[in-house]
Amino acid sequence: MTEAADARYMALAVSLGRRGQGNAWPNPAVGCVIVHEGRIVGRGWTAPGGRPHAEPQALAQAGALARGATAYVTLEPCAHHGQTPPCAQTLIDAGVARVVVAIEDNDPRVAGRGLAQMRAAGIQVDTGVLAAEAAQDLAGFRLARGQGRPWVTLKLASSFDGRIATATGESQWITGPEARRAVHAMRVSHDAVMVGAGTARADDPSLTVRGMGNVRQPVRVVVSRRLDLPLSSTLAQTAGDVPLWLCHGPDADAPLAEAWDGIGAKRLECALAGGQLDPASVLQALAQAGLTRVFCEGGGALAASLLSAGLVDELVGFTAGAVIGAEGRPAVGVMGVERLASAPRFDLVETRAVGGDILHRWQRKVA
Q: What residues make up the catalytic site (predicted)?
């Protein structure tokens, strides 16, 4: 294969892997393409819930044509026995002649073992094709394995002057229907949607994906130190239908904890820092529970705590052509930034019009 052909087939594998984002956790959303004599004979991506993996699905499509073929995989095939056999051995057994891998797996159970296993079996293994693209898509899984926390996207929909509500709390709707639909599409590609207790109380949100067809709903996460959320809320009333996880402190009210348990919510006890829930502890608990990609929709206090702790990987802003004024509620709470040099900085990735609003997307600035 030429370098151009390798890049073309890997680009397809990357696009297939994206179909699993938001569905595959706790496993990575991997894409795989099998090519035999210049013809695509198998395609696969990680199934909902994390299995089957991408490789066995693509190999099943290829059938006998997998023998002597080239497999393009966005992440190093696993080498450990879990609920399914290791994908490296499955590729070996299928008689694949060459495997092209975008990036290695930093999971300690794999970490090069899959590559070594295939090479030992006589398979030609090449790595690094579209590595940057694959690493971006798999950043949540890699963070969960390497740093014990998920990827965090912070979404803020605000007026031109950075307000998310009027002084009276009115916020529906600052941005238009096109922007709101775009947000639902973003929710689909994340494992969970997260808000703070203040937002949950003020807005009574459902935090579900709507208007996107029959999709797997993301986990709904509310960060509430004392669990002081209305049991009559939409979240509470639907806790038995769509997963609802509550991150709380060790001092949460015991009767409230029992009540939330009774309606089907999952509780994650987290540590305190400075009298508030420690955002690092919250993310660690979510990663330990299997989440790799979290879509945070505020409010201001939670956004400020995540930004101050350096735990936001991507900022997504929807800015409307409305001006509310200083009395309105700010998109981000108090951060105590006194010098510009200490303010969190992000690099611009994308900007475009969405209906009558502006979408701007930023990622953590790399020094």
A: 55
Catalytic residue among 3, 55, 104, 327: 55
Q: 93 and 118 in contact (C-beta within 8 Å)?
A: no
171 belongs to an annotated ligand binding site: yes
Q: What is the mean pLDDT of the chain?
A: 94
Residue 280 annotated as binding site? no
> What is the tally of structural domains in the chain?
2
For strands 98-103 and 70-75, give the pairing.
parallel
Report the interhelical angle of 300-308 vs 279-288 (nearest 10°): 90
The last residue of one of the domains, among 141, 173, 198, is: 141
For 16, the domain range is 3-141
C-alpha to C-alpha distance for 185 and 218, rounded to whole angstroms: 11
pLDDT band of residue 213 (cuts 50, 70, 90) is confident
Q: Is-catalytic flag, 55?
A: yes
| Same-domain status, 160 and 220 | yes
Which of these three, 123, 141, 159, is where a domain ends?
141
The answer to whether 165 is a known ligand-binding residue is no
